[in-house]
Amino acid sequence: MRGILANIVGHVLALFAQFITAARADWRGIEPVRHQRIYFANHTSNADMPLIWTVLPPALRRQTRPVAAADYWLKTKLRAFAGGEVFRAVLIDRRREHQTDDPVDKIVTAVNEGASLILFPEGNRNMTEDPLLPFKAGIYNIAQRCPEVDLVPTWIDNISQIMPKGEVIPVPLGCTIIFGEPIHVRTGEDKDTFLTRASDALLALRPTEDKAP
Amino acid sequence: MTQTDADLLLLFAGSCLLLVLASLVGMVLQSQLSPNTDNPTVETYLTRVRTWWVMVLLMTLALLTGRIGIVVLFLFCSFAALREFLTLTTKTKGDHMSLVAIFYVVLPAQYVMIWLGESGLFSILIPVYAFLLLPIVSVLRQPDQKFLARVSETQWALMICVYCLSHVPALLTLDIPGYQNRVVLLVAFLVLVVQLSDLMEYYVGRRFGRRSIAPRVSPKTWEGVGAGTLTAALIGFVLNWITPFAPHEAALMAIAIFLIGSGGSVVLAAIKRDLGVRDWGHLIPGQGGFVDKMDSAIFAAPVFYHLTAYFWSV
Fold first, then answer.
1. Considering only alpha carbons, which residue of chain A is nearest residue B103?
2. Which residues of B touch A158 (CB under 8 A)?
3. Which residue among A9, A37, B199, B278 is least enclosed by CB atoms within 10 Å?
4. Is residue A78 part of a domain?
5. Range of the domain at A60
6. A213 and chain B: CB distance < 8 Å anywhere?
7. What is the 3-state secondary structure of chain B?
8. ipTM (interface predicted TM)
């Protein structure tokens, strides 16, 4: 019963997000096919994860689980329902003292069960003027342990105009999600080299003529 | 069933007949030129025919529902057009409040006033109140940085996507003696004239056109516009029975609609070129965005509304 409800809520949310932003997927470096992937994206707003989730074709969406913060998604019952059952998020507690098991273990388990993932390698929402924060080590550790899975850079464009930092009401402007060419960790590649390469791959997708000053 | 509904159904039947022909032509073209659905020209044509079917069905349903149906349909079109336009215009963080006001106050207010028939309000809300008040909101939040570009581009978006487009449903508020129950047919007249003469202009212009109207901006040619003008006059003449106009007046009105509409289409193409985009949006299969699809109607509607109001309404 709850499962069906979660499914319906998921469809309604996707439709609603489509209506507000007319979000569009730009499959620039990869085709939207059922292949196990880890989409890693820039993170500036709370709408980021639902937006990526809604532009995925339904068949891919069912297979894809976002990696999200337990301290946010378990705060209220409603969020727990949305995070746990609608998005089926892999919940990670960012507060070290609350971690019962290793977050990377938990994520790798989800991948081994066949899930694709949506991941924000910056770890936190980017509240600065820089386009990206330095990536955390997590994505390197995951990539090393799942070498066969495609890591797809995913740039969320224009979200800063839909809801600039500090504003509460979103405006329904268009939004594009750009999927780039997948990368993999190379044999013997160290953490910093890989993180820089991943970060550059994501930045390369940013439209050059960015209207936001 | 009223006479107006019967006339609407007759127009619907006529449109369906044209679309059946267009679909048949498409099927023949596909079997000859694109058996593996790989000829882009043929496939684009087929996508467009499918879109036309949807448009004819939606328009007919809205027209049969009457004022509320038309108002809701065009409210949605305005919303979609506005989103396309404002996604591309110059704006900063300081304009966020203005944008919120546009989407959540000005847009619904314009259509509510049309629904209520308050012509004294819907004809000045955007050119006076929004024009003066929104820049004040923006200047209080961020007075520097490209100020003129921000406020003028925002106002252009509002005028084009909301003010002009809302004059299609505004036709229903006109009070024309002896035509009170039939006013919904004016919308059908406007839409049919715009679509059919644009189509002829497109076909002749691409096929036989030599002299370009606006090189590097629009593929329109003077030959195409000539053919479109003749077609418009003919359609206006043939359709005069659904209008309050005499036959020659209907033909002149149709010519005015077509010429202003074509001008609008070129103007909006120039703006697209300026903004560096090929299409305004992606929501209408085969035709780009809502602004692409409605560019001619956007320019023609307010002029058609005013000419009709000025000469025929009480």
1. A171
2. 87
3. B278
4. yes
5. 2-203
6. yes
7. CCHHHHHHHHHHHHHHHHHHHHHHHHHHHHHHHCCCCCCHHHHHHHHHHHHHHHHHHHHHHHHHHCHHHHHHHHHHHHHHHHHHHHHHCCCCHHHHHHHHHHHHHHHHHHHHHHHHCCHHHHCCHHHHHHHHHHHHHHHHHCCCCCHHHHHHHHHHHHHHHHHHCCHHHHHHHCCCCCCHHHCHHHHHHHHHHHHHHHHHHHHHHHHHCCCECCCCCCCCEHHHHHHHHHHHHHHHHHHHHHCCCCHHHHHHHHHHHHHHHHHHHHHHHHHHHHHCCCCCCCCECCCECHHHHHHHHHHHHHHHHHHHHHHHCC
8. 0.76
pLDDT by residue for chain B (314 residues), tens digit each?
Answer: 788 888 899 999 999 999 999 999 888 888 888 777 777 778 888 888 888 899 999 999 999 998 999 999 999 999 999 999 999 899 888 899 999 999 999 999 999 999 999 999 999 999 999 999 999 999 998 888 899 999 999 999 999 999 999 999 999 999 998 888 889 999 999 999 999 999 899 888 888 888 998 888 888 999 999 999 999 999 999 999 999 999 999 999 999 999 999 999 999 999 999 888 888 887 777 778 889 889 999 999 999 999 999 999 87
Residue A213 lies in a domain: no
Test mutation, B75, B77, B84, B87, chain A, max A CBs within 10 A: B87
Q: Pick from B92, B145, B281: which is nearest to A174 by CB?
A: B281
User: Which CATH number covers residue A175?
Assistant: 3.40.1130.10
